[in-house]
Amino acid sequence: MTIASALAGCATPRPRATWQPDDAVMAALPDWMQRAQVPAVSMAVLEGGELAWQHQQGLANAQTGQALAPQALFEAASLTKPVFAWLALQQASEGRLRLDEPLVDTLRPAWLDDHPWSARITARHVLCHTSGLPNWRREPMKETLRPAFEPGTRLSYSGEAFFWLQFVVEQRSGLSLPRLAQRALFEPAGLRDSDLAWSEEVARRAVWGHAAPQAAPLVPLPRQMMREAWLQALPLARAWGRPLADWRWDDAQRAFAALGGSVPSAAVAWPGDLMSNAAASLRCTAADYARFLRVLMPMARGPHLAPAWQRLHTEPQFETRPPWSAKTLGWNREQTAIGPLLYHAGNNANQFRAFALADVARGHALVVLTNGGGGDALCQAVVRAATGLALQAFEP
After folding, report:
1. Residues 211 and 283 in one domain
2. Are 221 and 209 in contact (CB under 8 A)?
3. pLDDT tens series, the chain, 396 aa
4. What is the CATH number for 51?
5. Are residues 146 and 179 in the same domain?
6. What are φ and ψ of residue 210, in 5° steps?
7. Which residues contact 307 (CB under 8 A, 6 or more apart)?
8. Is the domain of 179 the same as that of 268?
């Protein structure tokens, strides 16, 4: 029996005043984790814009039996994108980035195709996934990056577009993405357990990824792609006296060349795999991601975007399934029985699954991070049971 079928016998969900998982959810959680082949979970809840509850349980590594360390770090996967979008809007609010200026006016990557549409892509297109670019190229050392349609006309989810915009933001700010995030967001918002770069400390605290039930057994572990890539880069960072948190594209290119015959490989297909990534490289606890969500909520303490920029981050910018679904600059937005909600899901290598849901007006949020490829079903089960909401986001 799947998690979905196990929940099918429950009463019709009704929105709940609190999103903290109740005793019934917590009692069912171990069974849900087993069914989904998820060794560990990290969860957190905001109420009234403040952290009200946090919980983690399970194994960091099912093969070795390694238990979760306090404040264990999970790959947040694409939950990185809303964080980067907030940083991009913060930089725009200070005049360092223009949302409607073609990105090529600042930086044209060598691998960008010369199609006329490429020269029209802007930060606004990137942040609401209307750039026309693919998610990721299969062979980035051989393929050019080419839009499939005119920018701004329809949706095409693209992590690689975020990566390009990252280069633009780094050039305009003069800082690597991890350093910019620490200075502009993580430190002011009190995020002590979040990092966009790899280090010995991150390696010590980071959990391991596990395959989805339909893909492979729980053990042995699958290839740990991002961990493997960055562990190749760490010795070079030490030898050069330049931490990975400072690396930008030139550093990654130099490292790729230095690795010689060991690349390309399954884990390192091109230099971009050796540096922080605005689309997917955040590692954090669920509680820290909830602290990030506080910056969206007017009643909460912490840094905030000015109202006009906040609206771009949380209000509809491109309709996806009118009238109930839209893209903001950084989030998906769904109209529900209790009003509009923001959400985003994440999936790294089908080994880490994550989900975040926020009610900005009421200051509610729920974050679920997992270290299993089956974690999507677990996230959905927790969100449905804890919030009482049957989200269209979970429908096919």
Report:
1. yes
2. yes
3. 565 555 444 444 678 889 999 999 999 999 999 999 999 999 999 999 999 999 999 999 999 999 999 899 999 999 999 999 999 999 999 999 999 999 999 999 999 999 999 999 999 999 999 999 999 999 999 999 999 999 999 999 999 999 999 999 999 999 999 999 999 999 999 999 999 999 999 999 999 999 999 999 999 999 999 999 999 999 999 999 999 999 999 999 999 999 999 999 999 999 999 999 999 999 999 999 999 999 999 999 889 999 999 999 999 999 887 767 899 999 999 999 999 999 999 999 999 999 999 999 999 999 999 999 999 999 999 999 999 998 988 876
4. 3.40.710
5. yes
6. -130, 150
7. none
8. no
Instruction: Give exposure, 361-373, as e/b (b: 16+ Cβ within 10 Å).
Output: ebbbbbbbbbbbb
Are 166 and 198 in the same domain?
A: no
Domain span holding position 176: 83-187
Q: CA dist 181 to 49, 146, 169, 197, 346, Å?
A: 21, 29, 11, 11, 19
State which of 144, 171, 187 marks the end of a domain: 187
Calculate the alpha carbon distances from 2 to 35, 217, 384 in Å: 7, 16, 15
Amino acid letter, residue 11: A
Query: Which DSSP symbol is given to 199?
Result: -
Domain count, the chain: 2
| Angstrom distance (rounded) from CA 174 to CA 146 | 27
- Asked if residue 228 and residue 113 are part of one domain, the reply reads no
- Domain end, chosen from 187, 204, 238, is at 187
